[in-house]
Structures are given as C-alpha cells and as structure tokens.
Amino acid sequence: MKKALIIFFSLVITLSLFALEVSGEQYGLWSLDNSPYLLTGDVEVPEGTMLVIEPGVTVRAMGDFRLNVEGEIQAVGTEADSIRFENGQDPLTNTWKGVRFENSFLQSNFKHCIFEYADYGLNSVDSPAEISYCRFSYNTRGIHLFGIGSDDPAVVNVHNNIIEHSVQNGIIIPQNSNAWIHHNEVRYNGTSPQYYGAIQLSNQSAGGQNNPIIEHNYVHNNFKQGITAWDIVGANAINATIRYNHIESNLTGIYLLNASGVVHDNIIINNFIPGDANSGAGMMIGGATSAPHIAGNVLTGNFTAFYLAQNSVPILGDISSDHPFAYGENIIQNNIDESGTLHAIACASYTAGDNIIMAQNNDWGAYTADEIMIGIMDHSVNPSFPTVIFEPWWEPLPATTISGTFGWDGNDYDSILPEELKIQLVTVEDGLVLDEYELENNPFSFETEIDEPFYVLLCAIEPDDEIWAGVGGLDDLTIFEPAFGETIELDEIYIQKDMHYVREITGAPFNDPQSDLIAVSTSFLVYQPHDIKLFDEDGHERYLVRQYILMDGEYVSHHFQDYTLFYKTGDFEHGEIWQQSFYEGTQLINREVQTFIDEADNPSFVYTIDESMAAQEFIDQDEHRLYLYDAEHYAENYLEIVQYSSSERRFYKRDNVDHPSNFRYRILLEMDEEDYGMQARDILFWWQAPARSQSLDYEGYNLLATSPHWSIPTHDQDIAFDQNCVETRLISEGTTTISLTAFAGDEHSDPANTIILEYTVSNEDLVQKPEIRLYPNPVNFAGGEALKIESKELAQAKMKVYNLRGQLVFSDIISDENYAWNGINKQGKSLGSGVYMLRIETKDGTKHQRKILIMK
C-alpha cells in the first residue's frame, strides 16, 4: 500500500511539473516547454488576439470542452513535430467539443496537426483558414466548414490531410462556396448506422449557395457514400465542381440529391459493400432539380455505374449542347452486381415517363445498340422511367503514327545513339506528358492515342545528360493536332547544346480562391509549371501571398501569413534591403536582397543566405543576368534572362567566364580639393565573381587605379576572394583608369571591364555649384539638435542619407531653403552615432554630397 501511494504521488508531482492547466481567456504563445496543455474548461481566444501553438505541443481536453477562437490561431507544426489535439477523458469515446474558430477577416492556419476523438475536429464558422498536412481520426465529424447566412463565405483551403474513422462525416460543408478541398485522403468514415457522406455538402435554405471545388482527393473504403451533396429544400443551390478524384470501394461513390454542378475526370471504381444489395452505385442521382453535367469519368467495377431516381435528369453527354462539360466521353464498362447482371444505367422511382436522359458520346465497352441496351434500364423496361439516348456512342479510334529522324550539331556532340533518347508528347494546354517512347532506331516510328494538341520533345533518358530538342526548335515549338489513323511525318529534330530554358509567365491563369492575386508560374520549357507564386501588387512592389510547389504530380501550397516584400519591378533605391521567404521543394528559403544602383542608374541585386552570397543579378539596357554562387564563392554559371514577350521571361543557362566581370561603381562622396591638394572621391565598387580557372586557384581580387599624371598607380588594393564589393577613397587628377583582376600569387586573370573616371581641376571661370550650409555638423540628435540644410537653390531637391555600407536610411524632399532633419530614419527610429553620407540632387540633376557625423 505504501509503495502504491508513493507511485500515485509521484505521478501527481510529474503531471504538475510537466502539464499546464488552461481555461478561460488565452492568447499569446503555447510553448513546447509547457506542454501538454490540459483543457480543464472551455478556452476562449478573444477577438483581436492571436494564439500561437509551437510544434510538438499537445493540447489535451480533460472534459467535454471547446477551444473557441474569435481572434486568430496559428497552429503550425512540422513533419517531425506535429501539434496534437487529443482527448484526455476515459473512455476516449466521451468526445470533447474540438476547435471552433469564428473570425471572418483573419486567416487561421493548421499544419501538421492531429485531431482525435472530438465532436468536431475543426469547426470553421465563416472563418478563413488553411488546413494542411493534418490527420483527423476517430472524431464524430472531422472538419466542418460552415457558411450559412453569408453571401460570400470565408475562403477555406483544405489540402493534403488524412481524414479517417469519423463516426459521421469526414468533411461536412454547409453552404460554403469558397471551400477548396483538394489532395486529401478520406477513408474509413461513416461508422454510424446512419448515412453520412465522407465528404458531404448540404443546403438548408431557399436562398443558399454551396458551390465548392472538390478535386484530386483519394476517397476510399468509406462505409457510406464517398461524396454526397444534399439540397434538402430542393432549391438548386448546390453546384459543386467535383473533378480529378479517385473514388473507390465506398458503399456509393457519389450521391447527388437535388444537386447539380459538374462532375468530370474522376475515377469511380469498385464502389460496393460485398453482400449488400443496396450498395454499389458509382453515381447515385436523385431529385427533380438534379441536372449535373458528367463528363470524362471512368466508372468500372461498381454494381451499377449510374443509379437515377426521383425524376433526376443528369447530362451524361449531349452533342447538341454548347455546355463545356456536355461532351460525354465517360468510360462506363463492366459494372456488374453480385448476381452477374450488367448495370450501366438503372432508373427507379420516376413519376414522369417523358423525361429524357442524354447520354451520348460515351464508351460503353460495347459498340452496337443492342449490346449497349443490355445494361440500361429505362423507358423500354418501365413506361414510367425516362428514355436514355445513348447514340451516337464513343468508340476507340485508331492510333496516330508519328515518324521522324534526329540529328545533332557536330560542334557540340561527337555522336548520340538512339537508345540514349526518348520522345515525349506534351500537351499544349497544361504541359503534361501524355505519351513517351524510348527510341531504338534513327529514323524512328511509333503509335499514340493522344487526342489533344501536343508538342514533340526529344530528351535524354538519363536526365544528367541534359539533351533537349524539339520539333520546330525549342524557342518556337510546333503544335501538332492529332489525326487518328493518320501518320505525322516530323521534320528532323536537331539537337544543339544549351538551347533549353526555364520560362516564367506572369498572369497565367491558376485556380486559387483569391482571384485578384497576380500569378507568376515557372516551368521548364513547355512542361507543367513546377512553381506558382501568387502576389499582391502595390505599385512597383510585389508581396508573396501563396506559393504552390509541384510534388509527385500534385501541387502543395504554402501560405505566407505576413505579407513581406518579395521583389520590385521598378523604382529601385540604392542600399535598399528586404527579406525574401519562399520554398524550394520542401525547404523554406530565407534570403536577404540588397540593391545597388551604379552611376548609370543600372540596378544590381545581391542575394545572401545566412550571410553567404547565393546569387547576384545585373541589369542594364543590353543584358540581364543572374549569377549563381557556390560555397567557394565561384560562379560557374549564370542565367541569361530574356524578355520573350510582355508576360514571359526565359532563363537560359550559360557558362561564366574565368575572370571577374560586370565591374560597376557608385560615387558616394566627393571631397573638396583643398583637403588633399587634388580631387578625392569615396567610391563603392562591386563586380561579378568568375568561374574556376583551369590554371589558377584564385586567392583574391586586385583593384588598380592609374593616371597619366602619375608614374605609379594612384591606388593598388587587394581584396579577399569572398568579397564582391569594396568602398575605397581614390585621390587623383585628370583621367583615371580603374581595373579589377582576380589573382593567385603573382598571376592575374584577365581584367573585368575597365572603369574610366575624370577628375576635373576646379576653375574659377567654371559655373560653381550652389553653396550649401550644413549645420551643426557634427550633430547631436539625441540632445535635441536638428541638422539644418540651407540654400536658396535647393527647394524641392531630393535628399538621401546613406550609411557607410551604402544602404539608404532616409530620403525626403527639401521643402524650403531652411530645411531641418531630426535624425529619424525610414522606420521612424533614431539613427545611431557614426558617419553618414548626405546626397542632394536638384531638379536639373546636379548632385551634392557631404559627410554627416552623428554624435551622442
């Protein structure tokens, strides 16, 4: 007994040390250090506040309590450290109420979370949210997206989740047309005796609307319907888009009751419960207001493909209609019940025998009217049933033969064997590879059943070989229209090195709930985009809102909660710095962008990751290049960026030279001649690093300035190889030539482009710049002083202040001849002590520069 008491009290002490009881109002941070958080009562996150939950945290409900969010919740775990929302009651079947959030403006995010044994795992009440990579298990309802009463419900993006073992619905959507359900696995739901769809849409009011998008989901092995849409008031209010889903081994695949919309390009197979004669419909459609368009689906292996009832009139194919989804082309084959009876279309409970079911242009697996009629139970069987019109039907067409040859540039390749190559047929519309053929001979010939416009691309079987070519040339690929039963003779496919490219298209259409965002898609050649970024635009500035990455044939979305500047399309400022965040594959990249503007107003950008240079971009009137750095500060390659059209840029990979290039400069400060006896300037130089040299292992750079007035260089400076810029003071007179080389010991590379500066000698006969009075200098802003800038000729001039790194810290327009500045920077903060550069530019382009010394 004593031992048992010791164990009991040890457990109590352990719980008290490592658990935090919460109830009532909560906001701020729930940290891993205080996990688990025990809900001992309802928890409220008040309006105007945010609750952030760290990865790895466990939230455990100790009773029938709810986490109710009227503010904002950010529960973003990781693949390795999920956030758990679990039930602490005994038994677990005594569910807790789950997480409910109700805020129509601020988006909540749930990523890599687990929700178990709740009445509602997540309950969104007209609240924007992204729910991704979560698991919902053993809840009464997994996800509830409520939009009743709202004319424009909140956007909810539900993707890449697993929803399983729900007593009722995995996902239920009452009247939310802005729900997007995609790339989820929905399985083993509907364990209750009642009929609940694994994904269920409902409408309960005459004025309601419920038109979500449901796509790319795997809905399988659910005990009731896979996808259900019920309009219980028959208001014709449900018009969902259901497409590209795989729906298999459910009691019923799709059940539409007084619901319409579009159902296309789904795989609906093997839906039945063995031994249950009431199961087995691929699609069950009932109600007089049910008139969905159904096209391009595969329905095989069900007890019956279509079970039509209660005066429904679906359109399975109507060649006289101009509706975009009236084309039919459903594959309706081998739907046989356990008695061995074929059921392509079975009708029941019709009261009007004059109904017509249009079912033209479908592949029934049989190609005579008598054979097709074997599987159709319509007016010919029962006069109260509708008439099914299935002629003309769709028959498999003979293949198209494609023949051609290939050749190569002898300067680029010695020889290329056919067995090294393959042909890919890529769709024009969406860049998908619909057919592929590995070559055995040259010339070659093969057959294809592709039935839409396509490009012909030739590539290496081994991707590392980087062989790419296409009919018509990669820059202007030929579009082919397939002609079944005919032969397409291709022009010779000519292979040249480095003709392939990555293309970036701005404004390409993309299906996203926020249609006002600017989509920028990136793809290799004409293939499906592998990266799509959505931006909010404000003038020249673009802010990344969402990014889609193509992973294993499916798009994975990433939402960026805090809109931060991603890039600018103009109005560049020298020294401006911002942070970029984006994904490459599964990795989040955070990098800094710094802007340089040279004396010719050409911009350059330096990209750094963890204080190491990753890339450098140069833009001028003739060229636009992006150089990619390696860990040893070399740039073996660069991307030549070509503006192919107003909406498309192309990136061509090129080899870099083995010496520095793109040598540029900016004058930061010009000193008075009397200070040095000749003219002096503080100048910022920057350049592009070279590729590796075959003969030299570079140690650094040498900056050399020479003048015909001097027998020795006026400036000779060595710079570390991991640097790409330097600020230096040049003192000279007359013409000064500045060169930059990379060196290894006493050996030097070829120089970069030469910079020539003119150092003019002052002359009283020359027009003098306006006199500027700048005081006090040094200035003590912290002591209440202000820097006064006085000149009668500077009204409306531009004023800019830079730190010694060349970064812009403040800019303004000089309002009058007695202007004063209080030392506050662009962010509204006081500048620290040190030396700064003041640059003033008048309306006529005259520039003045002075040093400012700030003291504390």
Written description of the protein model:
This protein is mainly beta. It has 6 domains: 1-139; 284-396, no CATH class; 400-495, Carboxypeptidase-like, regulatory domain (Immunoglobulin-like, Sandwich); 501-655; 661-759, Immunoglobulin-like, CATH 2.60.40.10; 773-854, Immunoglobulin-like, CATH 2.60.40. Helices cover 3% and strands 47% of the residues. The strands form 11 sheets. It has a 25-stranded parallel β-sheet that branches. Strands 49, 50, 51, 52, 53, 54, 55, 56, 57, 58, 59, 60 and 61 form a 13-stranded antiparallel β-sheet that branches. An 11-stranded parallel β-sheet has the order 2-4-7-10-13-16-19-22-25-28-31, with no helix packed on it. Strand 64 and strand 65 (715-720) form a beta hairpin. Mean pLDDT is 88; it is low at 1-17 and 761-769.
Q: Radius of gyration over alpha carbons?
A: 35 Å
Q: Structural class of the secondary structure composition? A: mainly beta
Overall pLDDT metric: 88
The tally of beta strands, per DSSP, is 76
